[in-house]
Write a structure and sequence with these properties.
By secondary structure, the chain is an alpha/beta fold. The chain is about 25% helix and about 20% strand. The structure holds flavin mononucleotide.
């Protein structure tokens, strides 16, 4: 799969099939791509997704989070720039490897601060009005029962940054 992509990256037939995705890129100004590394390259199914939709991400803010066991992510960054050539990339990408895996939540928060995520996206304030109907989950999918501390949460189905 990955060898086929390398040999003919412009040929749609090189990419493994994935199910159709209904998300519309035009709904978003910022897209954070989160992908594992396979053999020092971007995982093949994510490459298919970006081959199909990367052109629609032109001019959007693009963040990249890559997980690997230990290999560095340079190859994945190169794949991403090939597949989303006209994205406005944040100043740094985030690499989560096996040894930093357990700190991923704080690494993501630090990274979002480092790339000025809030400034770039215009999210400056997040109101957490808690009513009987408010459901807050952390990024690991756990229900949060108290007032959330700083971080990223899914509040009533929408991703929010709590500062
Ligand atoms: C087909 C395949 C190839 C992989 N190749 C590499 C590799 O070359 N280097 C590396 O550090 N990790 C490699 N990995 C590990 C993945 O990057 C890792 O499983 C992924 O980041 C998810 O992390 P987790 O297994 O801890 O959930 C590979 C995984 C798969 C399935």
């Amino acid at each position: 799969m990955l060898n086929a992509i390398k040999a003919a990256p412009n040929d749609a037939g090189s990419y493994p099939a994935i199910d159709p995705v209904s998300t519309s890129q035009s709904d978003y100004g910022t897209i954070i791509i989160v992908t594992p590394l396979w053999w020092s390259q971007m995982a093949a199914p994510m490459q298919t997704y970006l081959f199909n939709y990367g052109g629609q991400m032109a001019g959007k803010n693009i963040g990249l989070i890559v997980s690997s066991s230990s290999s560095d992510i340079n190859g994945v960054v190169a794949d991403c720039k090939r597949l989303v050539p006209d994205g406005k990339y944040f100043s740094e990408n985030l690499w989560i490897n096996h040894s930093s895996h357990s700190n991923r939540s704080s690494l993501i928060q630090t990274w979002l601060t480092a790339i000025n995520y809030n400034t770039v996206t215009g999210i400056s304030e997040v109101k957490t009005t808690t009513s009987a109907h408010t459901r807050i989950y952390d990024i690991a999918g756990r229900l949060v029962k108290q007032k959330p501390s700083k971080g990223i949460y899914i509040i009533n189905g929408k991703k929010r940054v709590v500062e």
